[in-house]
Amino acid sequence: MSAKKYFVPFEIEISKNGKTVMRHRYDARDKDVLIMFPVGTLGDLVGWFPYAVKFQEKHQCRLTVSMSPLLIPLFKGAYPHIEFTTPEQVKVERYYATYRIGLFFDDHECVFQPSDFRHVGLHRTAGHILGVDPTEMPPLLSLPDDTRPIQEKYVCIAVQASTQCKYWNYPGGWKEIVQFLKEAGYRVICIDQKSTHGVGTTWNHIPWGCEDATGDRPLTERARWLRHADFFVGLSSGLAWLAWATGTPVVMISGFTHESNEFATPYRIINHHTCNSCWNDVRHRFDHFDFMWCPRHKGTARQFECTGLITPTYVKNVIRSIPTFVERGRLHPTSVMQRESADTNAHPAPYHEKEEETVQAV
């Protein structure tokens, strides 16, 4: 019998006086199985959940998944054959088998995961833990309102993150991109939860010129905005994963993670000519309590250079390669000034535009 906590197709055999008196081989068919996801995270769970679905399909079990009540509405309607519950409601004694999905930073003996997640990818680690095909697959989403939120062409952005190394640290970068998108005729909707985030003397503000759709809104509403957007521009954060799940093209700006860490996108932006991918370097243990974590260059002029040296020109060129962006330019030859004037008169903005942001160099 294995002491490992990830999926192992074990067999138990008990013998007495050289005679087998009991043998049981793992078989989850038509049995209750629990897969537990951590709470407090969006992107991780969006990436992990499809592997729970693969497990259910492979073993034909009666699957229960435990997750944050804030995320259940995203999936429940799309997976009626799966039971959704919260950690507080779980009764572990009813399950034939139980598996826990997570990022196990200090699992040096590989007890909870067969391979270190930093080697196989943030989402694919769930496939390895559950013993299913690790090929990535976006989850299905169930939205109570799937109608288009506004008639005009628009782009969603999300600029906030849980730690400074995840931000795009090029001073004024977001302001320039918002202006670029508006000049192309798009309305730019910021769908972050918070309009301002940071610690101490370092704070990150919603970019000037975008429309403010921040706040404690349901994730299904965020998904609705994303599903109908021409594309999404953001970071290696939860809303990028949610955009991926909606099928919307994702422009992802990230330097602290390697490309293998997230889902595949042809619009991934990383500068390989500078320091990068510290998150996936097993020599550096991520510190969840250090907002300014930069393991190789903290306190030096090179701190956060992984994204600080990603220029707006680079981001613009990637955006120009998106087919929907090119198509829009062909379909709408009207000047930017005429377009903005028509939008202002005919379609008042649902959210107020932000005043000039204050940017602190880090």
Automatic annotation (TrEMBL):
GO terms for molecular function: ADP-heptose-lipopolysaccharide heptosyltransferase activity. Pfam families: Glyco_transf_9. Residues 350-362 have a biased composition (Basic and acidic residues). GO terms for cellular component: cytosol. Residues 333-362 are annotated as: Disordered. Keywords: Glycosyltransferase, Plasmid, Transferase. GO terms for biological process: lipopolysaccharide core region biosynthetic process. Coiled coil: none annotated. This is Autotransporter strand-loop-strand O-heptosyltransferase.
